[in-house]
Amino acid sequence: MSTPPPARDVAVVGGTLLRLTPDWVGQREHGTVVVRDGRIAAVGDVPVPAGIPVLDATGCLVLPGFVDPHTHLGVHAEGEGWHGADVNEKGEPRGARLRSWDGVDPSDRGFADALSTGVTTVAVLPGSANVVGGQTAALKTWGTTVDDMLLRAPVGVKSALGENPKKNAGGPTTRMGTAAALRDAFAAAQRFAARPHDDGLPAAGDDRDAEVLARVLAGELVWHQHAHRADDIATAVRLADEFGYRLVLNHVTEGHLVLDLLRERGLPAVVGPLLTSRSKVELRHRSLAVPGLLAGAGLRVALTTDHPVVPIQYLPVSAAFAVKEGLDRDEALRALTLNPARILGLDDRVGSLAPGLDGDVVVWSGDPLDLMSRALHVVLDGRPVYRWDAGGEVARPDGSWAPL
């Protein structure tokens, strides 16, 4: 494994801060963000330590890095066909032991695109061809190897309901078959967890899948449930009620049709991708108003591009359209930062400008929800990794800069 570059110290000065902390209610304040050893040391009206590098943000907005909680960055490269498609292991309909980060290509151009729009953390999920696609990872969007980039892994396990697993020849062909396969998998996990394991050896064979799902049942890992249609959302809730795991709904295209159910359960929703056509039956009720309707009902909402379904640089564009269709403007910023961090259990590291969190800071030329605004500078773990200069430049490991 290559050695990641050392974390950096930096002070971002002169800008207007949007902290996006849990108690943030839209405040904008002139101030400084001080990053020491890769972590935020101080925020607000604070002095700049002597000798620390300074990044001038005068006249700009300063926000935490964005978080996209559902992507296929590195495992599904744009425009590369089968060569770049490592997202679905179709021979494994119940593949909980599969790990998305084992297939990540850090040279995927999508990571640089993410930096160019202020996205510093992504969840990389397996695809939705299988009932259980595999384990998910949280990655930073800059690094030489996936080991450099890993923030936390595993974060959860991906599962799919609806059209996609039905179309995979290696799995169930009906919705009732998909639900039955999930019940079988969790029943096996319950049996595994109930058995004594005294030999200290790793699980083997089918037990490897059961061991991972036992961690879901224990609440250690979230269950990322792909569900577009209202009946699939209801099935996702039913299964979570039966087995008691932490459910995070992904896509939630028809969530507004079962709003009372979601409100009653208080379930978090990762909504999107929003900038798509109605390319399949499950998307017939796709609406840019859904994020606002769910957030208005009191649900914690995050937005996703599902990259490369929608290129990741359009994440703030998605938020802008959601605001146009009713999502509160401040809530849209939370849906790009704090909310996805909380949903993924990463808010102890990312999603806010607060002391102790990772030094992921983005300097914006203006409001990120204004299509004319740009991410001018991106600092990741205290290291400047992107700057808008001659069309955009990304840092190399040796500290030099390369054109985007």
Task: Walk me through what this model shows.
With 404 residues, this protein is an alpha/beta fold. It folds into two domains: 101 residues, Urease, subunit C, domain 1, CATH 2.30.40.10; 279 residues, Alpha-Beta Barrel (TIM Barrel), CATH 3.20.20. The protein has eleven helices and 18 strands. Helix 4 packs across helix 5 and helix 4 packs parallel to helix 6. The protein is globular.
CATH superfamily of the largest domain: Metal-dependent hydrolases
Give start-end ranges of low-pLDDT stretches.
Answer: none
Q: Look at the structure and give the mean pLDDT.
A: 94
Class computed from helices, strands and strand pairing: alpha/beta
What's the helix count?
A: 11
Overall number of domains: 2
Could you give the order of the helices and strands? Answer: EEEEEEHEEHEHHHEHEHEHEHHHEEEEE
Report the radius of gyration as a whole number of Å.
21 Å
Give the terminus-to-terminus CA distance. 25 Å
Please sum up the structure shown.
The chain has 11 helices and 18 strands. It has 404 residues and is an alpha/beta fold.
Topology of this protein?
Blueprint: E1 10-17, E2 29-36, E3 39-44, E4 54-56, E5 61-64, E6 66-71, H1 109-116, E7 119-124, E8 132-140, H2 146-149, E9 150-160, H3 163-167, H4 175-194, H5 206-217, E10 222-227, H6 230-243, E11 247-251, H7 259-265, E12 269-271, H8 290-296, E13 301-303, H9 315-324, H10 329-334, H11 338-344, E14 361-364, E15 375-380, E16 383-387, E17 393-395, E18 401-403
Parallel strand pairs: 1-4, 1-5, 6-7, 9-10, 10-11, 11-12, 12-13
Antiparallel strand pairs: 1-2, 2-3, 5-14, 7-8, 8-9, 14-15, 15-16, 16-17, 17-18
